[in-house]
Design a protein that fits this description.
- It is a single chain.
- The chain is of the alpha+beta class.
- The chain has 2 domains: about 180 residues, no CATH class; about 230 residues, Transposase Inhibitor Protein From Tn5, Chain A, domain 1, CATH 3.90.350.
- The protein is built from 14 helices and 12 strands.
- The strands form 2 sheets. Strands 3, 4, 5, 6, 7, 8, 9, 10, 11 and 12 form a 10-stranded mixed β-sheet that branches. A two-stranded antiparallel sheet has the order 1-2.
- Helix 13 runs antiparallel to helix 14.
- The longest helix is centred in the last third of the chain and has 29 residues.
Length: about 500
């Protein structure tokens, strides 16, 4: 007989015949199973010591011995996000994820057996934990990953970063609807689910999250959330942004951090040339809102003010991009950039224009986060606002850990991180979780080396010039649109079948 379990088996763990029920969970004889739970090859990024530190810092540690201690719950929530898109039909259930997470524990020799916790018990464990531990865990893990030697990360001696926003759908519960709200103005134009607006600052070369902020889509614009990310900008960064962000106030706040900026601007904004530079760009002024109105009124009246407007000194670069597909007609689009890099010798216009299009890497990062990791067209699973925040922080933390694993593989081979497949990285990370969930550090290190070697055998080809039209096929759905105030029909019903007697 093996040693006795540290946790006594409850009477419900053995049936009336003295047999162990199905779906057992092996518990090591010397400690709770939760103390052995790990996240496979991602454990190096999210170590038990770090998780324990976060739990202690937030005061979320358990007061009595539980089958699911706080550390295990943190890893469980992270695993929910890691396995979110593992089934194309929808995110796997709580018990399914926990069963995978503890696969190794169920086969340890001499271990005692207990039932897997119920889904309701796992929900209560998430509620006890709250969002704060996952928030601090993400704050400890976020940040740039590349070094100065990493290919494709720096330009003009500056680290390329970009910020942009996206939206995450959450379950349509009354609590989520009140807390987060909807996009659109109602009717068919309103989003089908409540949404959370996510604003991210990404390292372009690695897709790593330098920082992120999110809040209710109905209350916070991308501009408001961008202000929360200003503190993580550094003087060695070149911040790229789409034309939605150009504005006097936000430009000044971002520039005050010491970071350099290169943002696209809308075609209706007027910048008066002060000095044309040899490369075709010109110096100008980004006027204050008051000066914009004053000069705009003068132009409307056919007058030109003698004195230039007051504001931020900037450099304007205008260029065109012509796309020639193999089939079809070419198309040409005009771009205008405003930048704080005023010296045309250090940052020539053509090179800066080519560099700006690295901004699209944040869109690729959102595709990895929302489609490859969370799942295409999937919504988050949490039905309460606190758990929604917990889940989003967990999703961001897992994504950052996967980016770190990709970066580690790229460093081993001395290649651009773009060559590492995020899809393969997610698949391998999932495969190793079950096998390595309770392994010792040596085994985890071996598994990590195996994953890196496998990633280097599945390199992506060098990035090609491509295009993707922002169009989609119309839906053929003929169902009526449910109105916001229209109650949902209960799904649980009682059927009554009565055979009708044929009249004679």
């Amino acid at each position: 007989m093996g040693a006795q379990c540290a946790i006594a088996r409850p009477p419900s763990a053995i049936d009336e015949n003295g047999q162990v029920p199905l779906n057992p969970l092996v518990v090591p004889p010397d400690r709770r199973f939760g103390e052995h739970v790990r996240l496979g090859v991602l454990t190096e990024e999210i170590s038990p010591e770090l998780v324990d530190e976060v739990v202690e810092l937030t005061g979320c540690g358990e007061r009595r011995r539980r089958l699911l201690p706080a550390r295990a719950v943190v890893y469980f929530v992270l695993a929910l996000c890691l396995f979110s898109s593992s089934d194309s039909a929808g995110p796997p259930g709580y018990r399914s994820v926990l069963r995978t997470l503890t696969e190794k524990l169920r086969h340890l020799p001499g271990a005692c057996v207990q039932r897997l916790p119920s889904s309701s018990a796992l929900t209560r464990a998430r509620q006890r934990l709250g969002a704060k531990p996952l928030q601090i865990l993400f704050e400890r893990r976020c940040g740039p990953l590349a070094t100065t030697a990493t290919p494709g990360v720096f330009a003009f001696g500056l680290r390329l970063v970009a910020w942009d926003g996206t939206a995450l759908d959450v379950p349509d519960t009354p609590a989520n609807a009140r807390e987060f709200g909807f996009t659109g103005k109602g009717g068919v134009n309103q989003s089908g689910h409540p949404q959370v607006r996510l604003m991210a600052l990404t390292e372009c070369g690695t897709h790593a999250l330098v920082d992120a902020a999110f809040d209710a889509v109905a209350k916070f614009s991308e501009h408001k959330l961008a202000r929360r990310l200003l503190a993580c900008l550094r003087p060695d960064m070149l911040l790229l942004a789409d034309r939605n962000f150009s504005g006097y106030e936000l430009w000044g706040l971002a520039r005050a951090t010491g970071a350099h900026l290169a943002w696209r601007i809308k075609k209706n904004l007027v910048f008066v040339p002060l000095r044309v530079l040899p490369d075709g760009s010109y110096l100008s002024v980004m006027p204050t809102p008051k000066e914009t109105i004053r000069h705009g009124q003068a132009r409307a009246a056919g007058r030109t003010l003698a004195e230039p407007p007051t504001g931020h000194t900037v450099r304007i670069i205008q260029y065109t991009v012509t796309v020639r597909p193999r089939v079809g007609l070419p198309r040409t689009e005009t771009f205008r950039l405003v930048t704080s890099l005023l010296d045309h010798r250090l940052a020539p216009a053509r090179q800066l224009a080519m560099t700006y299009h690295q901004r699209w890497e944040i869109e690729n990062g959102f595709a990895e986060l929302k489609n490859r990791l969370r799942g295409t067209a999937f919504i988050l699973r949490s039905k309460a606002p606190e758990l929604v925040c917990q889940e989003i922080y967990a999703l961001l933390t897992v994504y950052q850990a996967l980016c770190a694993l990709e970066m580690h593989a790229a460093e081993q081979a001395g290649i651009d991180p773009d060559r590492i497949s995020f899809t393969v990285t997610v698949q391998l990370a999932r495969l190793k979780v079950a096998a390595q969930s309770a392994a010792d550090p040596t085994a985890l290190g071996t598994a990590r080396r195996e994953v890196v070697a496998e990633l280097l055998t599945a390199l992506l080809p060098t990035r090609r010039d491509r295009q993707c039209q922002r169009i989609k096929k119309p839906s053929k759905n003929t169902f009526e649109v449910r109105k916001r105030d229209q109650p949902r029909t209960p799904s649980n019903v009682h059927y009554t079948l009565r055979v009708t007697k044929h009249p004679t």
